[in-house]
Amino acid sequence: MRFSALRILKEGLTGNTGWGPLWRTPEPKASYDAIIIGGGGHGLSTAYYLAKNHGLTNIAVIEKGYLGGGNVGRNTTIVRANYMLPGNSEFYSHSLKLWEGMEADLNFNAMHSQRGIINLFHSDGQRDAYARRGNAMINQGDDAILLDTQGCRKLLPYLDYDQTRFPIYGGLYHKRGGTARHDAVAWGYARGADQLGVDLIQQCEVTGFLIENGVCKGVQTTRGDIRAPKVGMVVAGRSGQVAEMAGFRLPVESHVLQAFVTEGLKPCIDHVITYGMGHFYISQSDKGGLVFGGDLDYYPSYAQRGNLPMAEHVVEAGMTLMPMIGKAKMLRSWGGIMDMTPDGSPIIDKSPIEGLYVDAGWCYGGFKAVPASGWCMAHLMATDHSHDVAKRFRLDRFRTGHVIDEESTGSQHNLH
Ligand SMILES: Cc1cc2nc3c(=O)[nH]c(=O)nc-3n(C[C@H](O)[C@H](O)[C@H](O)COP(=O)(O)OP(=O)(O)OC[C@H]3O[C@@H](n4cnc5c(N)ncnc54)[C@H](O)[C@@H]3O)c2cc1C
């Protein structure tokens, strides 16, 4: 089934009776050429690119819940380039390019919207830091424009520019950044993978590994053992737990991150905005809800919900920046489990067990990484070599000291 304007017209005229399910619901087979654990964005894109780029189609994605029920369907949907760090920058540049062709490639509308991201700054020192960040982005081949207060006022007239404590000095404008409908990204990759022959097995939890003489031969699941010579572990916030089942530890702590959405409003915010004096970022969804978030809840947890102090903190920051949002009613909030590494950067590498590969440590920025993570993890699993843009995402970098430090503060940023 291909989506096209003609098809939509035809279905509209014939009572929408011709749409089929987007993917099959197969029973798990006894063995595959490769298994991906985790039906989030990264697991599904890994399966898709394994099939599409490497011709490996006898694959299963094993998901303990439903496809897209994890962080991929819980995030605040921001897609952008990376800011500065070699190691991360080239990876995220690659990812942004893949985003730009993804919907055409998957023949699926993920509502990718390059509406631009503006990082606000509030002091001379912060302006210097953002100018440096912008220059690094341009050098990397991404885009950035430094706006002064007037430039910001033109684009974002509703902000409170004259607050005495943190007046807005300007912003760093990244035009190719924006948002995408998060669960549609999971559905698009799921449909694409299914069409290439990948079995998507939902409601099937991996409970252990079949390890023989130090080699991974498959997984134990709630629906029986499934064998495969290559197994990819792509379980985001559960990475530490699943690695423990295989008998090794990952340098990952799991923390809660919350997001919030208001009632639907008429279009009023047409960019993604980040506040430079507090951890607050906001955009407006196509349904009209203001979608915003802040910092981690700062205690390790596997609960997919957060606590009130962070909700209060986030809303306070929002009110400081744009008092008008005080009039909107907050509809919902939710949490997701973030797999935080000490340097804030991911891992795409072989594990200490032969045949078992790890894709983890996406912290609170892994949505924008979905295409490139799948691309690079598929490359690693198919060729046994790291992709050029993911070479620095090594598991042993915390032992050797070759870290890619996003903030130089470790995973508990507020404690440093
Ligand atoms: C509130 C919030 C806001 C965020 N905002 C942004 C943002 O604006 N921009 C951005 O780039 N990133 C953002 N992120 C981060 C981003 O969503 C994640 O880094 C990314 O989605 C993680 O990868 P994933 O999609 O594969 O994870 P998930 O969707 O969590 O996929 C992992 C899957 O593994 C499955 N699984 C776990 N254990 C097992 C098992 N034993 N057996 C079988 N299956 C298993 C889980 O059920 C889950 O479906 C945000 C995250 C949250 C929570």
Summarize this, please?
The chain is α/β, with parallel strands linked by helices. It is built from ten helices and 19 strands. It is 28% helix and 25% strand.
Describe, in plain words, how this protein is organized in 3D.
- Helix 2 (41-54) runs parallel beside helix 6 (182-195), helix 2 packs across helix 9 and helix 3 packs across helix 9.
- The chain is 28% helix and 25% strand.
- With 416 residues, the protein is of the alpha/beta class.
- A hairpin with a 4-residue loop joins strand 14 and strand 15 (280-284).
- The protein starts with a helix and ends in a 16-residue tail after the last helix.
- The strands form four sheets. Strands 5-6-4-14-15-16-13-17 form an eight-stranded mixed beta sheet. It has a six-stranded mixed beta sheet with strand order 8-2-1-12-19-18, with helices on both faces. A three-stranded antiparallel beta sheet has the order 9-10-11, covered by helices on one side.
- It folds into two domains: 5-107 and 182-251 and 343-415, FAD/NAD(P)-binding domain, CATH 3.50.50; 117-175 and 254-340, 2-Layer Sandwich (D-Amino Acid Oxidase, Chain A, domain 2), CATH 3.30.9.
- The chain is globular, with a radius of gyration of 21 Å.
- The mean pLDDT is 94.
- It is built from ten helices and 19 strands.
- It binds flavin-adenine dinucleotide.
- Flavin-adenine dinucleotide binds at residues 37-43, 62-65, 69-72, 74-78, 205-206, 234-238, 242, 257-259, 293, 336, 362, 364-368.
